[in-house]
């Protein structure tokens, strides 16, 4: 039988029957066993530490922090996509880590509201760190009640990468900037046996590109309303954006069977030059082999006539990773302050930019010179228009159903009305 316990109840529960019945089943959880209550041990939970972009720099910076603070032990817990779930489990047992490094997305949207993490605005000001943060990043991490969910850290640019060598091979001399040019380029690429736009139509990469294309005829305010409400039929701009997406899809713009592809497939196809175009965030751009990067340019997604945007669009977000403070972390504020201050230092920030090709939500004049496509994306500026990344507006419970709906949307022949229907059903499921 499905539990009727809300997320608020789950995260807030820490005693009584809920804790008593849950804890025995959690005894083998490594995070619970590792969440040290020693006041001289700072416990950090992060997605950095294995293969995630920026992991080598982070681990090196962590060692430097240890060297500078010999009396403070630091325990680094690492999880991948399951980090949010693991953290929530440890929070239920009141054995959560002190600092959590994760993005603002899906489950984490609810954390501050339900007390799983704390408002850090006061700490930001007390520690004098506000001036280090880009104002747009502060806005993005602040909820509707004025609470700062976490200390902003990683950001990302999300342009479109074009392999100009493959385009030229197919007889396409210029990067397409309109839908008609993109369709023409796709036909020429297919004639040469080259996939046009590769995309993970079965995961979050496809979800983001679909959301970007839907916004072709939407202003930012209109887009916020649509992605908050899930009403894709009641908005004329959303209807037209979905029609534009379906027209591109059925004209063969996307790689074959895009509805079954993943982000890994997408990056492999682009990096091995079996596909000519991909919508790629900074971490993917940093992984493009040098021999491919030399003949790759970044730009925006091509526009339809009468679009709401005046230039091809890209996505940007400043909510990729932040430093969240847990209730346990408030008991070790001296250690937490030292850690956040160290990570906010210009020399530490510059290392992530130079060594790992990361975009940052903090002020810095450093460019990712060893990652030319990342640096090129950082300099796009007014050459492109920015579409809205919907992550902080989509209700958390709708996130995964929207990915399922995305796969249906990328299935050739699916009508615009059907696409609207499955998108709206994802919100009703939530």
CATH topology tier name of the largest domain = D-Maltodextrin-Binding Protein, domain 2
Mean pLDDT, rounded to whole units? 90
Distance between the termini: 18 Å
What value does the Rg take, in angstroms? Answer: 22 Å
Number of structurally distinct domains: 2
How would you sum up this structure, described in words?
With 430 residues, the protein is α/β, with parallel strands linked by helices. The chain has 2 domains: 7-156 and 317-371, Periplasmic binding protein-like II (D-Maltodextrin-Binding Protein, domain 2, 3-Layer(aba) Sandwich), CATH 3.40.190.10; 160-279 and 395-429, 3-Layer(aba) Sandwich (D-Maltodextrin-Binding Protein, domain 2), CATH 3.40.190. 43% of the residues lie in helices and 14% in strands. It has helices at residues 7-12, 16-22, 30-34, 55-68, 83-92, 111-114, 121-126, 135-141, 164-169, 179-191, 204-214, 220-229, 236-250, 263-271, 282-285, 290-293, 333-344, 346-356, 372-378, 399-409, 416-429, and strands at residues 41-46, 73-78, 99-102, 151-158, 160-163, 195-198, 275-279, 296-299, 313-325, 359-360, 385-387. Strands 1, 2, 3, 4, 9, 10 and 11 form a 7-stranded mixed sheet that branches. Strands 6-7-5-8 form a 4-stranded mixed sheet. Helix 4 (55-68) links the parallel strand 1 and strand 2.
What is this structure, in a nutshell?
The chain is of the alpha/beta class and 430 residues long. It has two domains: 7-156 and 317-371, Periplasmic binding protein-like II (D-Maltodextrin-Binding Protein, domain 2), CATH 3.40.190.10; 160-279 and 395-429, Periplasmic binding protein-like II (D-Maltodextrin-Binding Protein, domain 2, 3-Layer(aba) Sandwich).
